[in-house]
């Protein structure tokens, strides 16, 4: 077991739980471990569920590294770009369960999953790049434009509005919400449901579905 995440693979199903005991900041180290776990699940052609610890899915990129800039920040962003491709290209069903805040890069992870289960409660989803003084990256804007409901795009990408769980469903970040104690149970049910679909047809159709977005982000990725 890592200090940053837990990984389990059994009977064609894989689970990754992000849990660094804090806010699950997506540092380069966290991203590399997450990418390694995704690669192992993909090699096994396993339906995948990614979740976070109760109260926080992830705060997104490590803000300290962003503020410092330099090679460490560049390495983190490059790993984040590889994560974008890993999620877009995942060869089997991909479900994300968020039991708390999902900010910036973590919110983009939600947009790249096949099915998203969230938690009711007092927490937010936000594309908060503008709020922290960042111009929205080109690849991130392409994802937002493709996956966020049009009537919410300006409020999310430009105005950096923090969304309640209910607003997050309307905007397209989640498919459904449940009380915190039921989130993982419901998410696992959806993973099993999708895993039961004919895999070759699912894999090929998923690739076709994601192909236009993949083409749109590729010129802007460091991966």
UniProtKB/TrEMBL annotation:
Cross-referenced Gene3D superfamilies: 2-enoyl-CoA Hydratase, Chain A, domain 1
Molecular function in Gene Ontology: catalytic activity
Recorded superkingdom: Bacteria
Family annotation (SUPFAM superfamilies): ClpP/crotonase (SSF52096)
One annotated GO biological process: fatty acid beta-oxidation
Pfam families associated with the record: ECH_1
NCBIfam families: PRK06213.1
PANTHER family in alphabetical order: ENOYL-COA HYDRATASE, MITOCHONDRIAL, ENOYL-COA HYDRATASE-RELATED
Family assignment from sequence similarity: Belongs to the enoyl-CoA hydratase/isomerase family.
Protein name: Enoyl-CoA hydratase
